[in-house]
Every structure is written in C-alpha cells, then in structure tokens.
Amino acid sequence: xxxxxxxxxxxxxxxxxxxxxxxxxxxxxxxxxxxxxxxxxxxxxxxxxxxxxxxxxxxxxxxxxxxxxxxxxxxxxxxxxxxxxxxxxxxxxxxxxxxxxxxxxxxxxxxxxxxxxxxxxxxxxx
Length: 126
Known about the structure:
single chain; alpha+beta; five-stranded mixed beta sheet; 2 helices; 24% strand; elongated
C-alpha cells in the first residue's frame, strides 16, 4: 500500500515535469512565429488591433496586431509568455461570450470580431 502510494506520487511528479517541459518547448517554438508588433501611431498603424489578455493569476498583457493577423497569432503570443504556464487552455471573450478555439484559429482578427480591440481571458483546461 505504501509502495503503491509512492509510485503514484512519483508518476504524478513525472507527469508534472513532462508538462512543464512541453510548455517551455512550446514557448520557445511559438515565440519565433509571432508577427512583428505594429507601431502604435504613424506609418503602418492603419488596421492596428489592440488585444488585451487576462491571465488566470489576474495579470493583464496587452499587444498590438494587425486586423489581418490570424487568431492563431494571438495564441502563439500567449504561448510565448513566461507568465503562461498552462498547457491546455482556450482564449475566451467575456461579452459577448465567445470561445476562440481550433475552429477560429484561421480567422483574421477582424473576421473574429476582435477589431479594433479585443479583450480575452485565458481559460485553463489543465
């Protein structure tokens, strides 16, 4: 019985470690595929979308994208954040409530209704 409990704890620790490694690996990969952040004002600022993402710990991160960027670019950005340690999650808008998932990754931010600005929260599914 003690041996079984120890084995279960060791398996849970291995699983946690594997998930942390996967998150770090994904963070590295995705940070390389984020589009360059457009300027706030001036040349090249037409079609800029401001996206605010609220993380489970209550912190907020804001970034600019172009309205033609895909929803997947926002996921890549969130995946690259040091403060995001979730492996499985969805980005959700509050009002109107809408879940941005696999079915919306190929939509542009404009098509997804996130232009000229959007507020999303990260809903962990870990």
